[in-house]
Amino acid sequence: MLSDAELDTRLFGLLREDGRAGYTHLGQLIGVPRARVADRVRALLASADLQIVTSVDPAILGVRTIAHLSLTLDVAVLPFLDALRPAPEVVLASAVAGRFDAVVEVRVPTPEHLAETLRRIRAKPGVRTVEALMYLGASRGYRHVRPAGPPPVVDDLDLALIELLRRDGRRSYRELAEEVGRSAGAVRTRVRALLDRGAIRIEAITGTADSSGRLAGVGLRLGDADPEEVVDRLALLPGTHFAVPTLGRFDVVATIRGDSARLLQARLDELRCTTGVRAIESWIHLDVRKERYEWPVEP
């Protein structure tokens, strides 16, 4: 019989693939009763150890400029990051171990908005340095960054469903239908179409990295390799959480996960040996203070 810890690990893996997977389906895949699956998922959601997030193609939301910021500070890191949490343009804020003290991801409509955001962050007390990387191309991983082509076409009904799903990615089709005044069958068809077209993704994330340091960020410097091709290869490696081409001191930024420090080291070594990679720099996520990929949805 699976322990709760083993069951949680299996559930997290399956819900990362499909955050709306039903309890019965999850139980059948794992081989445990539906009731036990329901109890564990509810407990994890209540404890915030598990979150179901709906990420939206940023172009649909008018967000076309995305940057990764690396900060060095001379003040306490966690209070500093907590002060950034209310800002909607800050979608990720994490304390890290490595050359920098914190990493922040910001999403804004234009480069001009990014320049203003950088100015505000650099002016905050305690900030020593800020280094910025621009995201390019399309991400491979659990969160949308930028589409490779034009954004999917959506209408007012799609936008209404997207906003409801961002509040609760596991809301039932019946509840969604009641909110938008359509049948459950029609809503199911619309939601599936949004998922299939890549307009949204509904997946599980953990609230924080644990003390064993199982989540690492990696910056890759390439030779003459195509960053998009390297990102595609990284996406096939076990443990790749996220990868995207960038403009700046790195050609690619990725996040990798391992069940232990030893496994994480092995995956870093695998990245070093990836064809086209000349050098890597890594940092360990110690405490993820914010990870919410949100932006106002306006029909």
Automatic annotation (TrEMBL):
GO terms for molecular function: sequence-specific DNA binding. Residues 154-221 form the HTH asnC-type domain. Keywords: DNA-binding, Transcription, Transcription regulation. SMART domains: HTH_ASNC (SM00344). GO terms for cellular component: cytosol. The keyword Metal-binding does not apply. It comes from the Bacteria. GO terms for biological process: response to amino acid. This is AsnC family transcriptional regulator. It comes from Embleya hyalina. The lineage of its organism: Bacteria, Bacillati, Actinomycetota, Actinomycetes, Kitasatosporales.
